[in-house]
């Protein structure tokens, strides 16, 4: 079975079509999960795994159980008049070997002297991962790993990033297999037009290579890629009864992507041109933190360089977080010294980022919202106003509008509509900026969270990851 996967910077989701109906994969009760994973303090190296007689016996036990379950599924399918394709022993053994290897790694992690919480036998994902990290402190929380895929990585860091992406993709594959009642082995994975990168186009190539490598280890036999605005276009295409041109604007957590497309009617969607900007919602969180919270830690007051505060606010960037925690603030004046050193404690930068994100969401509807910074100093807090958010968002909005101006100057014709999607499109300020860029064109709002994954599901079942282009 083929599924579409939106491996997002902030949130991830998956979907496919079953009997002609869009079916979203559920992760617990949710239709998406925060792209975050928590590991115990020490992550074992998979290359250290060796198949001992004891582990081989475990593999054979898993194979026997899988055969029995397969026979049960086959019997039920015959009784219900459905077809059912049994998997080969080689496939069953491959799955069993992966399971045993993962369990071996989990035991190694649990036995680590620094992995103090015995209940964490498995990696945790989404909000559960963030909560575990905040509650226990000891361990590794990786947020928004997609943001790191396009940067120059030394071999060991690249190995860790592949390992993290593997866990996330395997989490998606297993959830889909359970819900859909059969093995999921292939996927169409969304990708931005341009990944965040320090290496230009080579960074985007590296990012795709890492995802492809991780998907193979996660149990996918084959994956293909589709640019995210093209995926959103395929979703919008299903809604249009007649043919028209449309401009797709997808503003996600990490990137802003635009596509000019011919959509609707009985013809296939045709992507004419795409544009991309490697900035999105996570930049808004960092900007709001810098504008409203970092002055409480001495930004622009002390002699601490501004880049230290940027590093602290960039929770999605592991090297920056590591650099911030290495700094020595013993000689900074109070109260800034104590607050900065509190921010260096495990989980503190994550709490600050969550506070920024919650404030951003609250200010979408409220004129003012309180922000509690008591984890840095008892009683510390600030009140964040809509004007603060507007000021923090302004650099991103200006850059986005420059991109949209480039789009308008280069498109082949005036589109019939502008289709707006992506999680950051919820922001009234961002939405207003898009309207301002195209005041004479009808704006159609798609599902901010699920527009891209719905289009990836279309591509997965229709077998099209290369919409016709000019």
From TrEMBL:
Keywords on record: ATP-binding, Nucleotide-binding
Species per Swiss-Prot/TrEMBL record = Luteibacter flocculans
Q: What is this protein called?
A: Hsp70 family protein
**Organism's domain of life?**
Bacteria
* Keyword Metal-binding carried by entry: no
Check the record and name the Pfam families matching this protein: HSP70
User: Which PANTHER family does the protein's record reference?
Assistant: HEAT SHOCK PROTEIN 70KDA
Which residues fall in a coiled-coil region? none
């Amino acid at each position: 079975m083929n599924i579409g996967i939106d491996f997002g910077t902030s949130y991830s989701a998956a979907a496919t079509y079953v009997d002609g109906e869009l079916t979203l994969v559920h992760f617990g009760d949710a239709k998406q999960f925060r792209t975050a994973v928590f590991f115990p303090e020490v992550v074992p190296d998979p290359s250290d795994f060796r198949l001992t007689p004891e582990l081989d016996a475990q593999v054979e036990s898993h194979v026997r159980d899988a055969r029995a379950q397969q026979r049960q599924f086959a019997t039920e399918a015959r009784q219900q008049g459905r077809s059912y394709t049994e998997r080969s022993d080689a496939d069953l053994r491959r799955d069993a070997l992966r399971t045993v290897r993962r369990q071996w790694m989990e035991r190694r992690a649990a036995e680590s002297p620094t992995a103090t919480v015995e209940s964490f036998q498995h990696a945790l994902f989404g909000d559960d991962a963030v909560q575990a990290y905040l509650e226990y402190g000891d361990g590794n929380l990786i947020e928004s790993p997609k943001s790191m895929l396009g940067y120059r990585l030394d071999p060991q860091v690249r190995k860790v990033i592949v390992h993290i992406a593997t866990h996330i993709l395997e989490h998606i594959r297993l959830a889909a297999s359970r819900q859909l009642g059969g093995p999921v082995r292939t996927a169409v994975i969304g990708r931005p037009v341009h990944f965040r990168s320090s290496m230009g186009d080579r960074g985007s190539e590296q990012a795709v290579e890492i995802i492809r490598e991780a998907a193979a280890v996660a149990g996918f036999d084959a994956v293909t890629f589709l640019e995210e605005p093209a995926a959103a276009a395929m979703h919008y295409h299903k809604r249009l009864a007649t043919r028209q041109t449309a401009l797709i604007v997808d503003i996600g957590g990490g990137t802003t992507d635009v596509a000019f497309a011919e959509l609707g009617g009985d013809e296939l969607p045709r992507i004419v041109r795409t544009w991309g900007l490697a900035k999105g919602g996570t930049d808004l969180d960092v900007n709001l933190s810098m504008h409203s919270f970092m002055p409480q830690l001495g930004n622009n007051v002390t002699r601490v360089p501004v880049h230290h505060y940027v590093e602290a606010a960039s929770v999605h960037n592991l090297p920056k977080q590591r650099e911030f925690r290495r700094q020595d603030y013993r000689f900074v004046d109070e109260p800034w010294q104590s607050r900065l050193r509190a921010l260096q404690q495990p989980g503190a930068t994550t709490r600050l980022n969550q506070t920024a994100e919650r404030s951003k969401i609250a200010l979408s509807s409220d004129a003012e919202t309180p922000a509690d910074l008591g984890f840095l100093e008892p009683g510390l807090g600030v009140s964040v106003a809509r004007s603060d958010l507007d000021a923090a968002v302004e650099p991103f909005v200006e850059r986005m509008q420059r991109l949209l101006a480039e789009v308008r100057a280069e498109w082949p014709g005036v589109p019939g509509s502008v289709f707006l999607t992506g999680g950051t499109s919820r922001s009234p300020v961002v939405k207003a900026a898009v309207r301002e860029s195209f005041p004479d064109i009808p704006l159609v709002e798609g599902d901010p969270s699920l527009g891209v994954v719905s289009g990836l599901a279309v591509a997965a079942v229709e077998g099209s990851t290369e919409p016709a282009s000019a």
